[in-house]
Structures are given as C-alpha cells and as structure tokens.
Write a structure and sequence with these properties.
By secondary structure, this protein is mainly β. The chain has one helix and 23 strands. The strands form six sheets. It has a five-stranded mixed β-sheet with strand order 12-13-9-8-16, with no helix packed on it. A four-stranded antiparallel β-sheet has the order 4-3-6-7, with no helix packed on it.
Length: 341
C-alpha cells in the first residue's frame, strides 16, 4: 500500500510552525501573499503537478515550476479554506485559512447584493447583521483590483434606525469593469467583520428595454431599436408580435431592425440581453401599429395640424389671387358719369 501522507492544517494565514508540519513533506510554509494575490510555499525536492483549491473547489494549477498559485482576486472578509494537493504520488493535502477571522461574523452586513441598472447607475444593498450591536454603522467601499485603492460610496440610503443599508453610484462608466465591493462595520464596543463580493459589472447589469421606432404604410412595417450599455456592445433580442386577434409569436434576432411586408394592425414589444449573458431585460411597453390606414396615421398630430393649416392658407391665397384677376377684367363705370341717351 502506498504511503498515505495527509497534512490538513487549518491555521492562520501567516505561517505554519515546524511542529505542525511533516518533516518529510516536500511542501512547507504554506502561506498567502496578499499583495501578489498568491498562495505560495517552500518546495523541497521534486513533486508532480500541484493544484490549488478554495473551499474544496478546484481553482487553478501551480505555475513557475510549481512555486505558487496565482489568483485573480482574494477574499477580503469571508474566511475561506485554501488548500493544495498533488496530482501524482502519495495522497497529499495541505491547507490554511484566509483572511484572519475578526469579531462576530453575525454582526457583519449580510445579503450584500449589487446591480447595474438604467444604463448609468450601480446600486448595492445589504442588511444589518442579526447580532450587530445597537450602535453599529456600515460604510461601503469599492476597490480597484490592480492597485488595492479604495473609494467610499458617494450616496447612501438609511433604514428607519439610521443605519446605512444602500449605496448608489451615478456614473458606472467611471468604474473599472471588475471591482471588489466591501461593506465595513464600526461600533464603539465591538469589532465588526466586513462583508465583500467581487463583481464583473457586465454580468450584474439589468438592461433597460429598448424603445421601438417604426415606419409604417400599407406595404411594409419597418421597426428599429437600440440597446444601451457601458459594458455590452453585442446583444440578442426577442421581438414579440401579435397581428389583430391572432396568437402572439416571438422572433429571436441579433439585428437591430425587423421588417414586415403587407402588414395590417400589429402590437409589438421587445426585450434584450447581452450576447454572452443569461438574464433578459424587462419587456418594453407594447406598441400598436395601424398600418392599414396608410402612412399618414403614423405622423404625429402636430404635423397633421400643420399640414391642414398650410393647405388652408394656400387655398385662401389662391382665392385672393383669382378674385383680383376677375376684378381687373370687369368694365369700369365711374360713379359721377351718366350714361348718354
């Protein structure tokens, strides 16, 4: 039977004492390097491929001759188990916890959730921790993943107890596409753990439904629309159409237009989603197109009124000109002259 070497060490992320480690272990001093976002170790001897896990989920393989595992982002608040194993040889597992646990987790902000909406806005919300002290207050920050710089929320909303529970950003175009969101709590008598989440803004965007504009007459109905987003530039659309009292049907499109030939009365509505995304926008407000009464029915009322007024003025002008011409052709009879007998 192969020698079983199993070293499960759930300790702080600083360092492992020599007494905790197998002296024959090829891997020692497992640790987190936060600035570099690495899980690294000291390697003694040759080993097979090393794989890295977070909470038992495979994340990546070791690089640089099995010297470390590189992560895109590390947790700032929630304690997670980081572990490594060998793909060949005797079974081997070593792990640590990161970051350090501070304070009562039940006092931290809970239910942190963020979403992009109405094209330009980012909103994040959370709830007060179940065991948070009465004087707790929360503040939200977003962090640049590259520089670790933090920026506080510019616009808070409070609940009826005066606790911050929501944050609004008014211009998401100024934010990087990937951000880490942190909510930190403060209290006079207790340490409050933070809460965090890492988001890709394109993935949490709720698109606004596009508005349909149309050109319509007895021969054709041409519908056009435009979806707006700071993060997605390719979209899929679902156009739902209903002709008269017939059952509605749906067209799946990638184009920003749709044409119907020989239309009559149609009701149309539209929704959109990013090409590589799962969630759809809400449906647009249903719009009615009465194409059987001619193109004039699609003109706005003010334009029809202007055309009627213009036609009236033209008719009056023509009448004035005709009346003047008739008057010039009639014989003149001055009032002071008498006809001769």
């Amino acid at each position: 039977m192969a020698l079983l070497r199993l070293a499960v060490l759930l300790t702080s992320a600083s360092s492992l004492s020599q007494s905790q480690e197998d002296p024959d272990s090829p891997i020692k001093n497992l640790r987190i390097e936060p600035v570099e976002r690495r899980l690294t170790w000291d390697l003694h001897g040759n080993v097979s491929e090393i794989t890295c896990f977070i909470n038992s989920k495979f994340i990546t393989k070791a690089v640089n001759n099995n010297r470390y595992c590189q992560f895109h982002v590390l947790p700032s608040c929630e304690v997670k188990n980081f572990s490594i194993s060998l793909t060949k040889g005797p079974p081997f597992l070593m792990g640590i916890q990161y970051p350090l646990r501070e304070g009562n987790p039940a006092a931290a902000a809970r239910g942190l959730d963020c979403w992009v909406h109405d094209v330009d806005f980012l909103t994040c919300s959370w709830e007060v921790g179940r065991e948070a002290p009465r004087d707790v207050q929360y503040h939200l920050y977003w962090q640049e993943l590259r520089t670790h710089r933090e920026y506080e929320c510019p616009n808070y909303e409070m609940d009826n107890r005066g606790k911050f529970v929501r944050c609004h950003f008014n211009d998401v175009s100024k934010l990087p596409k990937h951000v880490q969101i942190l909510v930190r709590g403060t209290s006079q008598g207790a340490r409050i753990p933070c809460s965090d989440c890492t988001v890709e803004l394109s993935e949490i965007e709720i698109l606004s439904p596009p508005n349909i504009t149309a050109t319509c007459n007895k021969s054709y109905l041409m519908m056009e629309w435009e979806a707006s987003s700071h993060f997605n530039n390719r979209f899929e659309y679902e156009l739902q159409l209903q002709k008269g009292s017939d059952p509605a049907y749906t067209e799946k499109l990638q184009e920003k237009f749709f044409e119907l030939h020989n239309p009559r009365n149609y009701v149309a509505r539209l929704r959109a989603k990013g090409f590589y995304r799962e969630s759809w926008s809400e449906w647009s407000v249903p719009q009615h197109f009465a194409c059987d009464v001619g193109e004039d029915s699609q003109r706005p009322d003010w334009l029809l009124s202007a055309l009627v007024l213009l036609a009236t003025l033209l008719v009056l002008g023509l009448l004035i000109v005709l009346c003047g011409s008739v008057a010039e052709t009639l014989p003149a009879h001055p009032a002071h002259e008498r006809p001769h007998h």
